[in-house]
Specification:
The chain is of the alpha/beta class and about 375 residues long. Helices cover about 40% and strands about 10% of the residues. It is globular, with a radius of gyration of 21 Å. It starts with about 25 loop residues before the first strand and ends in a 41-residue tail after the last helix.
């Protein structure tokens, strides 16, 4: 029987929600966004990010100043080097012989080069980990489209098979670092302001990247009926609720957004974190603990939009701001990513897979029409059912 999922392994090619047939993978494909590594890289990198949108360099330079403030170097590449090394160490510790091959969507090392390296080493079955935990166009489907484009560009379609681990927003390995971080963050607030009333003078702000409202509404499969914010908002809210319950000490919490772009006429998810901090200051809140729950590492949106802009906004209003660490190379996170690979290698049934919210475990093979970009339409994508 001919499979219906492009470039999938035999266990996934007919599109089960959860794959329960073991698969002998040859290598792990670590896929990330990429970032510039010097001032001369910044504009070419931003051209890659915005390709096809016709944005002139003058407008790109308005965004470039975030990178220029850090010497033109995005922290994301070094973070991925560290994550790759940590994954390799964890695999070696467990006696698992799976090489890790790293490729980016927007900067060197590119995905196409990673696929050529994989094929050159004799690998044929890859299991991909994308450095993004949630469901949306940019955090899941676009990676799947880029895998398809890289297979086409390299002529390796029909030679390489690429599966992808499930979105891991509610895997305990991803969530535990935030639980630890909130606990430590509240301790820091109480040391800085002895006697502060946690219930009235402190807020937990769970921060994630804003996306266009139309993309949010299309995130996740339609049949789940997540409503206006789609699976993207629902997943973040569910995880934030777990983290707050585990370590929030009764502190009120809310989900806020950051890093919006695009024309002002286009609705994006709100509220913006800076706007919300201003409002909270007026309500007598004295401290905020910022939890970057939408991010796996301290890349530019964290270092600039949170550590620079949001912290400055809090300071301007006389508030203390503590930013919780991202998972990075936290032992639980690294171990959890390996566990996600082993789910697929060993064909672990869905009922035996860990998930800390009622929304998961998420799908191994994306459902039809999942995470559509309504402006661009559907493009060929691997690791999911068409369209």
């Amino acid at each position: 029987m001919t499979g219906v999922v492009p470039a999938a392994t035999p266990a996934a090619e007919n599109g089960p929600e959860h794959v329960s047939e073991p698969t002998a993978y040859d290598a792990i494909l670590l896929a990330s966004f990429g970032g510039p590594e010097g001032q001369d890289d910044v504009i070419p990198f931003l051209r890659n990010v915005t390709r096809g949108r016709g944005i002139p360099d003058e407008r790109l330079e308005e965004v470039a100043h975030h990178y220029r403030a850090f010497g033109g170097v995005s922290p994301i590449n070094d973070q991925n080097r560290e994550l790759k090394a940590a994954l390799e160490a964890e695999l070696e510790r467990r006696g698992i012989d799976l090489p890790v091959i790293w490729g980016n969507r927007n900067w060197d090392p590119y995905l196409a080069d990673a696929l050529r390296d994989a094929a050159g080493a004799g690998h044929r079955k890859l299991i991909a980990i994308a450095t993004s935990a949630y469901s949306s166009y940019s955090s899941c489907r676009q990676y799947r489209e880029d895998f398809a484009m890289a297979l086409d560009a390299t002529g390796l379609d029909g030679t390489l098979q690429i599966d992808k681990v499930r979105q891991f927003f509610d895997h305990p390995g991803f969530v535990q670092p935030f639980i630890d971080g909130v606990r430590d963050g509240l301790d820091e607030v109480q040391r800085a302001v002895p006697g502060i009333d946690l219930a009235t003078e402190v807020r937990l702000l769970f921060a994630t990247h804003s996306i266009p409202s139309t993309d949010a509404a299309k995130s996740g499969p339609d049949f789940r009926g997540f409503g206006e914010g789609g699976a993207y908002a629902a997943q973040h809210l569910a995880v934030a609720e777990v983290v707050a319950a585990e370590s929030g000490r009764g502190v009120p919490w809310e989900l806020v957004y950051q890093s919006r772009s695009g024309p002002p006429s286009q609705p994006w998810l709100e509220p913006d974190i800076n706007d919300r901090i201003e409002e909270l200051a007026k309500d007598g809140v004295r401290a905020v603990v910022i939890v970057p729950i939408g991010f796996v590492s301290d890349h530019m949106e964290v270092k600039w939009d949170l550590d620079t802009e949001a912290v400055e906004t809090a300071g301007e209003h006389g508030m203390i701001a503590v930013r919780v660490p991202t998972p990075g190379t936290h032992a639980a996170y690294v171990s959890g990513l390996v566990d996600l690979v082993l789910e697929r290698r060993d064909g672990i049934p869905a009922a035996e897979r860990p998930a800390v919210t009622s929304l998961g475990p998420w799908y191994d093979v994306c459902r039809p029409g999942c995470c559509e970009n309504v402006r661009l339409g559907f493009k060929p994508a691997v690791a999911g059912l068409a369209p």
